[in-house]
Design goal:
By secondary structure, this protein is an all-beta fold. About 0% of the residues lie in helices and about 20% in strands. The protein contains no helices and 3 strands. Strands 2-1-3 form a 3-stranded antiparallel beta sheet, with no helix packed on it. The structure holds zinc ion.
């Protein structure tokens, strides 16, 4: 189950929460649903920058990284 990190647009609270399909995350402090979704801990792994997009060529044959060959070069 994915964990996402959010920043509340109303009170500025940052928090991580499990997001089940069909549910909407809300701020644990003020219960606002005006949230900015931050990068999840999973999305940031193995990637230091998105400034150099790679062609979509499928999973890396070396490590299976879904973003394709080159994504695992930072290992
Ligand atoms: Zn809030």
């Amino acid at each position: 189950m994915p964990i996402f990190e959010y920043a509340c647009q109303d009170c500025g609270q940052q928090f991580e929460t499990l997001v089940r399909s069909g549910t909407v995350a809300e701020c644990p402090s003020c219960h606002s649903t005006e949230l900015e979704k931050l990068l999840s801990v999973f999305a940031t792994q193995g990637s230091t920058s998105d400034a150099a997009p790679l062609p979509a060529v499928g999973p890396c044959g070396t490590c299976g990284h879904p973003a394709g060959p080159g994504s695992c070069a930072v290992h």
